[in-house]
Write a structure and sequence with these properties.
The complex is a heterodimer.
Chain A: H1 3-7, H2 10-15, H3 20-32, H4 34-51, H5 60-72, H6 88-112, H7 125-147, H8 154-180, H9 185-213, H10 217-225
Helix pairs in contact in A: 3-4, 6-8, 6-9, 7-9, 8-9, 9-10
Chain B: H1 26-40, H2 44-66, H3 69-86, H4 96-114, H5 116-128, H6 147-155, H7 159-170, H8 175-182, H9 186-205
The chains are: A mainly alpha, B mainly alpha.
């Protein structure tokens, strides 16, 4: 073998991952080839120094900026935890109530903002593309979530359906509002929020069905408890 | 508030504990799930606990992947903001450390890909330098290179091979783990690491102490 052929094995040689036979052959080559010997020695220095690079510590202001950014994030509703398996419907019912509240409050809150204070952005192509994207995601998920929902017990199914109905109603209301006020930024936001919530719920339903198929009660309970509007 | 995150790194040649693909043990899983649960419930103290436990390790990764402290700080913040939003999807299938590490790698890759066009120029210029060629008469790398010189050289590596190099040679992952994290084949990981080492050799050959 020549240097070119050994070149493909240098990495493994430096890492110590060559098998014994190949390593012996490589060693024999190195004993007669000063060029390859130099490459190996250099790569070993680089490897050893790399593993010993100084540990970097993030400066304190990173946490300060991060905690401020999190503080500014929209509040997420805390999930309900620790429910025993088989009592998911209670969590789901709570989630349904929360969804109703979120949608109603966000819509009501939006309506109370004086329009003159902050003119809403005009509807543009970007908005339509985003809506199409979200709607298309829902259309892709819906048949998957609907197909196997029969595997869930009736109570769970009913509550999930109630959740979906609430979101569909919110989507319908937002769309109706956009018909009358096509440039309302609040209505656009409400629509996007409802569409995103529906996607998240459909994804959770699919994950829940998968966990139940696997017989993973704990995993299923965790999904249900994590349902977050 | 001061950040005094505990920073651990794998022993040379050992997979990194936080980033490795192994399943969490029962105790770790329970602790992680409990912490994630508290974070999801809006417990700010829990989130700070999460940050302090993992920020150090993630900062080391993003610092070297990004190539500068400023970018690393922005990236670290983005990683934790993303984690804050996504904690609901944490199911405990892997440890919280692994889950965060993957988020960080993906975040870095997104940023690096965004810089691709700019970096193509750098890659080309390094390729033109013949950094991959066997250095028959090239000056040797000093037997003891300074860490600062090495850090600078790593920051100058093309984005693609830098990611593989950082994960393998700095973070201590095996090639199969690097491949999984980067979504490439093990062979690609090996060739990228080798390419990076040869470029570093070319860059460091002219350095004297």
């Amino acid at each position: 073998m020549n240097c070119r052929e050994y070149d493909t094995q240098i990495g493994d040689y430096v890492d110590g991952t060559l098998d014994e036979g190949t390593r012996t052959s490589f060693d024999a080559h190195l004993s007669t080839c000063p060029q390859c010997r130099a490459v190996v020695a250099d790569l070993e220095v680089i490897r050893t120094t790399s593993l010993a690079l100084e540990v970097q510590v993030p400066p304190p202001h990173v946490w300060r900026n991060l905690s401020a950014a999190i503080e500014a994030e929209p509040r997420r509703f805390p999930a309900v935890w620790g429910l025993p398996a088989g009592r998911w419907w209670q969590t789901l019912a709570a989630a349904a109530t929360t969804i109703t509240l979120v949608v109603s409050l966000s819509w009501l809150g939006g309506r109370l903002v004086p329009v003159a204070a902050e003119p809403p952005p005009s509807i543009d192509a970007e908005y339509h593309v985003a809506e199409r994207h979200l709607t298309s995601a829902i259309e892709g998920l819906e048949p998957i979530a609907a197909e196997d929902r029969a595997e869930l017990d009736m109570e769970t199914r009913d509550v999930l359906q109630a959740n979906l109905d609430v979101l569909d109603a919110a989507i319908g209301e937002s769309r109706a509002a956009l018909q009358t006020e096509p440039e309302s930024g609040v209505a656009q936001e409400s629509l996007f929020e409802a569409l995103r919530n529906k996607i998240a719920l459909l994804q959770d339903i699919i994950a829940l069905i998968n966990e139940m198929r696997k017989g993973n009660q704990e995993g299923a309970a965790r999904i249900v408890s994590g349902l977050n509007p | 508030m001061d950040c005094v995150a505990s920073v651990t790194r794998p022993a040379p040649g050992q997979p990194a504990a936080a980033g490795g693909p192994s399943k969490p043990t029962g105790d770790v899983r329970a602790v992680d799930l409990e912490l994630a649960q508290r974070c999801r419930q809006g417990d700010a103290v829990a989130f700070e606990e999460l940050y302090r436990a993992h920020a150090g390790r993630l900062y080391n990764l993003v610092f070297r992947m990004a190539g500068s402290a400023d970018d690393a700080e922005d990236l670290l913040q983005e990683v934790f903001l993303h984690a804050h939003r996504k904690l609901g999807s944490f199911r405990g299938d892997s440890s919280l450390g692994t889950w965060l590490y993957r988020l960080a790698v993906n975040q870095c890759l997104d940023v690096l890909r965004g810089r691709q066009a700019k970096m193509t120029r750098v890659t080309d210029s390094l390729d033109e330098d013949g950094a991959d060629e066997p250095a028959a008469a090239a000056p040797r790398v000093p037997t003891a290179i300074s860490r600062i010189d090495l850090e600078r050289a790593i920051a100058r590596l093309p984005e693609g091979c830098r990611a593989a190099f950082v994960l393998h040679d700095v973070e201590g992952f095996e090639h199969n783990e690097v491949a999984r994290l980067l979504g490439v084949s093990e062979g690609t990981s090996k060739s990228q690491v080798h390419k990076a080492r040869m470029k570093l050799r070319a860059m460091l050959s002219g350095v004297t102490r």
